[in-house]
Write a structure and sequence with these properties.
134 residues, alpha+beta, five-stranded antiparallel β-sheet, three-stranded antiparallel β-sheet, 35% strand, YjbQ-like_sf, Secondary thiamine-phosphate synthase enzyme, UPF0047_YjbQ-like
C-alpha cells in the first residue's frame, strides 16, 4: 500500500476533469489493485462521470445550482458568503471519495469516464487530495 497527498491547481467554480492531473501525481501503479482518492475539503467534491462531452460539465453546474441555489432565506451558516453553505450541501450530495480499479498498471475507467473535481466555491484555493494505492 502506498499513499501520496497532493494539491490540485486552483480552479474556478464548476466541474473539471482532473484525471490527467491526478495520474501525474500517482506513484507507479501495481498490475492489479485499487486507487482510493479522497478530497480533504467540505466545499468541493470528487466523482467519476462523462469525460467526452464538455456540455456534461456545464449541465452538472446548472442542475446542482437549480437544486441548491445560493441565498436561500432559511440558511443560517452565511458568514463565509452566499456560496459557502450551498457548497457544503452539494459536496455532501456528491461525496468526498472515489475508488477506481487498477488493471494492468492503469486506472480501469470506462471508455468515456473521467475523474471530476466539483468546485462549489466562487473563489477557492487549490484542493488537497489523498491518494491511496492498494
Amino acid at each position: 500500500m502506498r499513499q501520496t497527498i497532493f494539491t490540485l491547481a486552483p480552479r474556478e467554480r464548476g466541474y473539471h476533469i482532473i484525471t490527467r492531473e491526478v495520474m501525474s501525481q500517482l506513484p507507479d501503479l501495481p498490475k492489479v489493485g485499487l486507487l482510493h482518492l479522497f478530497i480533504q475539503h467540505t466545499s468541493a467534491a470528487i466523482t467519476i462521470n462523462e469525460a467526452a462531452d464538455p456540455d456534461v460539465l456545464t449541465d452538472f453546474e446548472s442542475v446542482f445550482n437549480h437544486i441548491v441555489p445560493e441565498n436561500l432565506p432559511f440558511l443560517v451558516h452565511t458568514m463565509e458568503g452566499p456560496d459557502d453553505m450551498p457548497a457544503h450541501i452539494k459536496a455532501a450530495m456528491i461525496g468526498h471519495s472515489i475508488t477506481v480499479p487498477i488493471t494492468d498498471g492503469r486506472l480501469n475507467l470506462g471508455t468515456w469516464q473521467g475523474i471530476y473535481l466539483c468546485e462549489f466555491r466562487n473563489r477557492a484555493s487549490g484542493r488537497r487530495l489523498v491518494a491511496t494505492v492498494y
